[in-house]
Structure formats: structure tokens, C-alpha cells
Amino acid sequence: MNLAFWPAKAALLFGLFVATRLAAQEPAEILLWPSGAPGSEGKTDPELVVRGKSGERSVSRVHHPSITPYLPSGGQASGAAVIVIPGGGHRVMAIDHEGYNVGQWLAAHGVAAFVLKYRLARETNSTYKVEIDSLGDTQRAIRLVRSRAQEWGVNPARIGVMGFSAGGELAALASMRFDSGHPDATDPVDHFGDRPDFQALIYPGGAGKVEPSTNSPPAFLACAANDRPDIAEGLAGAYLKFKKAGVPVELHIYGSGGHGFGLRSTDKRPVAGWIARFDDWLGDRGFLSKP
């Protein structure tokens, strides 16, 4: 469906309609800043949600960043939580196979998941910056989940990030740039630290720019060998950097899968098993042991 030929009013109504349908089908979103995100003042355009030929949705025009919670039921909760960050080149977000599908799988396996909608720095006419607004949304999501950890049955020392493609770039940035919180801040959420306790970088953009330090969170890395060289080779290089820094790390490079394999129930290739390997890794690192 090509929105370029629609009248502006029709495109706006379409965005509102699909966004409403999306909200009705998923758990309720929680705004990162209920009173408005810093840097988004005066931006009133509604989110645009477009369904592609495959039926999967992409989201853009985000001015009110949020998280959508997927919580384990009953006594299944392990206490671990993951901020799930979809990719899309910072132009859109592949919200289904790199977001909601992942959140559902994790919750079904005892891990609380929070799918992040962040502001997009490279969509047409965007005024946002990757390392300011998009990264700021990621950091805020970590603080918010940590601030409400008891309410959501989460151990505040077991909150990690998982990012895909452009979302992987944000997960890596959040794992390199963090603080322990700001106790004098007027916003109580800012009292909490934003350091992830672990990081999962799934075919991340900017893989060659990952620079771990000795206090970097443990890392799970995954991609396909036939992805772009900057990812397939860059992630192998990142693995060696983690090793050199003394940071626990695990790397999976699948023989095929290309870029953007994400998580789909219809995918029966070996690469589709990456999320089970991630779950194994969480258990091996002690993040799934119940109190």
C-alpha cells in the first residue's frame, strides 16, 4: 500500500485507525514520560502503523515513546526482565517479529518483556538524534522498569536489553553509556540507574563500534553468516573485544538467515532457535534462578 499517493487527511485517518486496532490487540502501552517526552514538545502527529504484504506491522512517527509489558503468568516468573528494542533502520520499527512476538515468547518462558517504542532519528523530517532521543528513550525504559520492579515481579538486578538491527545499536549504546541514577532529580524515575544487567545484540547495526569495558554487562550475540559484512564480521570482532575486556560473552553465527530474521512462528530454519539459545544463556548466567 503506497501512502505517497493518498491525500494527507486520508493518510492521517489511516494511521489513527490502524494505531487504534494495534492498541486493541496488544497489552496497554505505558508512556515513558506521561507528561510528554523531552524533545517532543509540540509534536502532535499520531503514530503511523502500516501492515505489509506479509501481514507484519511497522510503526513510525513516534512522539510519545512507550513500553508494552508482557508479564509471565502465575508462578512462572523468574524475576528476569528484558527491554525488547525492534529495528528498522531508525526509520520505522518492525514491531511484530522484532517486538511483540519476542515479548510473547519471553513471557511464556518466565521472563518479563517490555517492548519499546522509541523515537526515530532517520525517518523523513525527523528532528530526533540516535544518541540523544532514541538512546534517551532506551535509558528511560530501563529506569522505568527498575522503578516499578516490585509491581511487575521483576528483580531490579536482572533487567537487560535486547535489540535487533537499529535496536541492537541502541542496546549496545545503553550498555556502554549508563549511570547509577540521579538521587536529587525531581522525577523519581530518574533516581534509578540505567545500566542493563545483560545485553542481547541480535544482528546489531554499528557492530564494529561496540567497545566493551571491564564493567560492561554480559553479552549474548547472534547473527547470520550471510548478513552484511559489517554485521556478520563486525559481531565476530565485537565478541573478541568482549573477551579481551574480560566480559562474559556468547556468540552464535548461523550459516544462513540473512538480516532481519527476528522471531516468526513460521520460521523453521536453524536460525529460528536463537531465542531458545538466549534462554539457555540466561539460565547459565544465573538470571533465571528463582529466589
Tell me what you see in this structure.
With 291 residues, the chain is an alpha/beta fold. It has a single domain (3-284), classed as Alpha/Beta hydrolase fold, catalytic domain (Rossmann fold, 3-Layer(aba) Sandwich), CATH 3.40.50. It is 30% helix and 17% strand. It has six helices and eleven strands. The protein has helices spanning 8-25, 96-108, 130-147, 166-176, 229-245, 274-284, and strands at residues 30-31, 48-51, 57-60, 66-70, 81-85, 93-94, 112-117, 159-164, 199-202, 219-224, 249-254. The strands form two sheets. An eight-stranded mixed sheet has the order 1-4-7-5-8-9-10-11, with helices on both faces. The chain has a three-stranded antiparallel sheet with strand order 2-3-6. β8 (159-164), α4 (166-176) and β9 (199-202) form a beta-alpha-beta unit. α3 crosses α4 (166-176). The radius of gyration is 18 Å and the shape is globular. Residues 1-24 have low confidence and may be disordered.
